[in-house]
């Protein structure tokens, strides 16, 4: 009996794997099935609003393993299961990725070819409020070609976070937020 092509296997398994991951309270970010010698490697990438810890990875692994065992006819043989969370270099491609990146520094390539480094504020289903070059602005997802979180080794400036919070609350910016107070002149 021949086994179905790799992409077809993942497509057939995705609904049941997504259901198992969702039932555990997580989001399925990616499902990949590759041939690895005589076995298949099933890679499941999961995430959640609060991140994913090792205990949760174990829980999800058990749930997905049960589902895969029940659908072993799709895999057509033995498999190795790898459950992981996304790496820091994962592109932000969905609104939930942007929500999880709140207050993080992100490198953005816009559809017009320009690049920005922004601090992420509130995100909804259409776009995200960011602090870019000292200015609060809104980026529509349709205008973003690629976005990746930048690794930071220090806490973000408190004034940046305050400005993003005020923008989320709809409060107007005040001059003191940009450092143009009497004391800073």
Describe the protein.
With 185 residues, this protein is of the alpha+beta class. It folds into 2 domains: 79 residues, GMP Synthetase, Chain A, domain 3, CATH 3.30.300.70; 84 residues, SH3 type barrels, CATH 2.30.30. The chain has 5 helices and 8 strands. The strands form 2 sheets. Strands 7-6-5-4-8 form a 5-stranded antiparallel sheet. Strands 1-2-3 form a 3-stranded mixed sheet, covered by helices on one side. Helix 1 packs across helix 2. Required for maturation of 30S ribosomal subunits. This is Ribosome maturation factor RimP. It is found in: Cytoplasm. It comes from Saccharopolyspora erythraea (strain ATCC 11635 / DSM 40517 / JCM 4748 / NBRC 13426 / NCIMB 8594 / NRRL 2338). Keywords: Cytoplasm, Ribosome biogenesis.
Secondary structure topology:
Elements: H1 6-23, E1 27-36, E2 39-47, H2 54-70, H3 72-75, E3 79-84, H4 95-100, E4 105-110, E5 115-123, E6 127-132, E7 135-140, E8 144-149, H5 158-169
Parallel strand pairs: 2-3
Antiparallel strand pairs: 1-2, 4-5, 4-8, 5-6, 6-7
Helix pairs in contact: 1-2
């Amino acid at each position: 009996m021949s086994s179905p092509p790799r992409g077809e296997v993942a497509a057939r398994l995705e609904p049941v794997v997504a259901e198992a991951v969702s039932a555990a309270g997580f989001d399925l970010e990616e499902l990949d099935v590759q041939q690895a010698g005589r076995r298949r490697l099933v890679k499941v990438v999961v995430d959640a609003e609060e991140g994913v810890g090792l205990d949760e990875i174990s829980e999800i692994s058990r749930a997905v393993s049960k589902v895969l065992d029940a659908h072993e006819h799709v895999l057509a043989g033995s498999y190795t299961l790898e459950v992981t969370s996304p790496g820091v270099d994962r592109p932000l491609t969905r609104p939930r990725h942007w929500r999880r990146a709140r207050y993080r520094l992100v490198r953005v390539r816009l559809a017009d070819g320009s690049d920005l480094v922004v601090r992420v504020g509130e995100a909804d289903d259409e776009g995200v409020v960011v602090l870019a070059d000292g200015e609060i602005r809104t980026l529509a997802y349709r205008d973003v070609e690629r976005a990746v979180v930048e690794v930071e080794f220090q806490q973000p400036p408190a004034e940046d976070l305050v400005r993003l919070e005020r923008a989320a609350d709809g409060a107007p910016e005040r001059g003191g937020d940009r450092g143009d107070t009497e004391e800073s002149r």
